């Protein structure tokens, strides 16, 4: 191994005591290959087997906590005890490759597909549709529905623990329900769940509280609880970087194992006009709370030099998505001194070889510029 890359392979221990063999985490990526009830399939297992050997931890595809937050017909689920056998198989499969296994848990909120919902209307903090044309107008959740949703995240966590995983990542990013409560665009409430910045924080903080209570009750060994967030929104009104910095100040006091940004580029600067900063948003969060809670950086990291540079900012962990789709053995090749053999493009003929599932392959090859696809 090139001595310049030693920092990638230093072990890491989360505050909970879960230990990783290196600093690379497989980022959560939508597969869309589960059964219609959210159960794990052989195709999903094959995908994880191909990529789980080298990384320190795998964060699974986002897993649905409730049928009333469903996005896609074949999305991954943790919303019913009937799914436990498949979940146990998935946890064991990832562990057999030598990696820790975390499950990302989410609810779609207003982003849910109305055609897949029993009531035909998605739920959200307020009756505000997302900005894309044709988006459904959601139903504002009642107090009882809010409490039910919090409990659904708690129940999902219990199942994740019972299945033998090492942690959960609470998905407060990408415009889904938890972010909808934090966002001034989607949350126009004037009760205890909205209005001020502090009240908009309440829903995610209550979910964190309940999840951690479940962990304390059911986990018999160290178990990770992380939180993922998107630092800004394009909408006006929308989440600003200053909102997020105040939020991470509070998140850092919740005894979380990590916070994980959802951004498309590690070095990307704040995008909203009111921010004058030229500092990477990931670095801003690290500088703000990195001494209190581990921060996972992500976004456009494809070479070992990229990862070393990112770790050099003080970030203790990096998540990789696109790079591990194109090169499932990325970590192993760096460790064995074969970094020049890492695939950096995605041939259209390589789907089967790389064990990329159909829904993901469709997204990869049909979104211009998302991947360096070659013929």
How would you characterize this protein structure?
The protein is α/β, with parallel strands linked by helices. The protein is built from 13 helices and 15 strands. Helix 2 links the parallel strand 5 and strand 6. Helix 2 packs across helix 3. The protein is globular.
Q: Count the strands? A: 15
Give a quick account of the main beta sheet: strands, pairing sense, barrel closure. 8 strands, parallel, barrel
Q: From N to C, what is the helix and strand string? A: EEEHEEHEEEHEHHHEHEHEHEHHEHHE
Major β-sheet strand ordering: 3-4-6-9-10-11-12-13
State the shape: globular
Task: Tell me the span between the first and last alpha carbons.
Answer: 32 Å
Measured as a percent range, the helix fraction is 25-40%
List the helices and strands and how they pair.
Layout: E1 12-13, E2 19-20, E3 24-26, H1 42-51, E4 57-59, E5 63-64, H2 84-96, E6 100-106, E7 123-124, E8 139-140, H3 143-163, E9 167-172, H4 177-182, H5 197-200, H6 202-218, E10 224-229, H7 241-251, E11 258-261, H8 281-289, E12 295-298, H9 304-311, E13 317-320, H10 322-326, H11 330-335, E14 346-347, H12 351-354, H13 358-366, E15 373-374
Parallel strand pairs: 3-4, 3-13, 4-6, 5-6, 6-9, 7-8, 9-10, 10-11, 11-12, 12-13, 14-15
Antiparallel strand pairs: 1-2
Helix pairs in contact: 2-3, 3-6, 7-8
């Amino acid at each position: 191994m090139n001595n310049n890359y030693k920092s990638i392979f230093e072990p890491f221990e989360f505050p909970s005591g879960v230990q990783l063999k290196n600093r690379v985490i497989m980022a959560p990526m939508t597969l869309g290959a589960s059964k219609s009830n959210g159960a794990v399939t052989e195709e999903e297992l094959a995908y994880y087997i191909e990529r789980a050997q080298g990384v320190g931890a795998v964060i699974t595809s986002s897993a649905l906590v409730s049928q009333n937050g469903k996005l896609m017909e074949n999305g991954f689920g943790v919303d019913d005890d009937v799914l436990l056998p498949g979940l146990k198989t998935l946890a064991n499969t990832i562990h057999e490759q030598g990696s820790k296994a975390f499950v990302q848990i989410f609810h779609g909120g207003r982003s849910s597909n109305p055609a897949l919902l029993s009531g035909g209307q998605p739920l959200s903090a307020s009756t505000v549709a997302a900005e894309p044309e044709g988006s459904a107008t959601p139903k504002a959740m009642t107090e009882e529905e809010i409490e039910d949703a919090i409990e659904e995240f708690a129940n999902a966590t219990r199942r994740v623990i019972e299945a033998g995983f090492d942690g959960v990542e609470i998905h407060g990013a990408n415009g889904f329900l938890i972010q909808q409560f934090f966002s001034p665009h989607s949350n126009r409430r004037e009760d205890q769940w909205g209005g001020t910045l502090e009240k908009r924080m309440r829903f995610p903080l209550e979910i964190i509280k309940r999840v951690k209570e479940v962990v304390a009750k059911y986990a018999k060994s160290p178990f990770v609880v992380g939180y993922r967030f998107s630092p800004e929104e394009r909408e006006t009104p929308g989440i600003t970087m200053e909102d997020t910095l105040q939020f991470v100040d509070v998140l850092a006091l919740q005894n979380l194992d990590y916070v994980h940004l959802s951004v498309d580029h590690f070095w990307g600067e704040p995008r909203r006009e009111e921010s004058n900063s030229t500092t990477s948003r990931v670095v801003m969060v690290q500088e703000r709370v990195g001494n209190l809670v581990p921060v996972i950086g992500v976004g456009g990291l494809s070479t070992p030099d990229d990862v070393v540079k990112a770790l050099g900012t003080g970030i203790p962990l990096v998540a990789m998505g696109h790079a591990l789709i194109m090169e499932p053995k990325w970590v192993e090749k760096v460790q064995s001194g074969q970094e020049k053999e890492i695939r950096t493009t995605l041939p259209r003929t390589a789907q089967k070889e790389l064990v990329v599932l159909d829904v993901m392959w469709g997204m990869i090859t049909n979104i211009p510029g998302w991947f360096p696809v070659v013929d």
